[in-house]
Amino acid sequence: MSEIGLFKSRIRLNLKEYISNIEASPSFEILKRSLEIVADELGGELTNYVMDSYGRKTQCDLAIVTPAFPRGVGIKIDKVTGEVTFLYDNYGGYDDIVRKITDEITQNYVAIALIRTMKSLGYQVEEETNEKLETLVLVGRL
């Protein structure tokens, strides 16, 4: 049966100062950038909805649609706790593709957050895209 499922992630945004406008939050900007990187790597695009196998749309805060998974992987953000939940319809054996997308989003989020933290501590840090691993790589020195 086709149905949009919710799957918790390990990402939690800091929204305390941005409850009225989460898009202004640096954490939200990092999450959006993470999706943009994955979309670029996989030839996809960002949207604000995902679809089930019947084509019914479910609205979400952010989503990525790729040629390999045109139903999309979405993100819902709990405005109080900042908890990030992935949404997608895994009907039809797309688990491996969806897992790859969600893992890359999470890895990119952590890498970007780490880069920004290191910069704030005075490190000279650069972003590089490693084509073989399709993820961000940190290069830094104090």
Distance between the termini: 54 Å
SSE sequence, one letter per element: EHEEEEHEE
Number of helices: 2
- Low-confidence stretches are none
Q: List the strand order in the largest sheet.
A: 1-5-4-3-2
Bin the helical content: 25-40%
The shape is globular
What percent strand? 25-35%
Overall residue-averaged pLDDT value: 85
- Structural Rg: 16 Å
The major beta sheet can be summarized as:
5 strands, antiparallel
User: What would you call the structural class?
Assistant: alpha+beta
Number of strands: 7
Structure description:
The termini are far apart. The strands form two sheets. The protein has a five-stranded antiparallel beta sheet with strand order 1-5-4-3-2, with helices on both faces. With 142 residues, it is of the alpha+beta class. The chain has helices at residues 26-42, 95-120; strands at 5-12, 45-51, 57-65, 73-77, 83-88, 124-130, 135-141. It has a domain at 5-102. 27% of the residues are buried. The radius of gyration is 16 Å and the shape is globular. A hairpin with a 4-residue loop joins strand 6 (124-130) and strand 7. 30% of the residues lie in helices and 35% in strands. Helix 1 crosses helix 2 (95-120).
Write the layout of secondary structure elements.
Blueprint: E1 5-12, H1 26-42, E2 45-51, E3 57-65, E4 73-77, E5 83-88, H2 95-120, E6 124-130, E7 135-141
Helix pairs in contact: 1-2
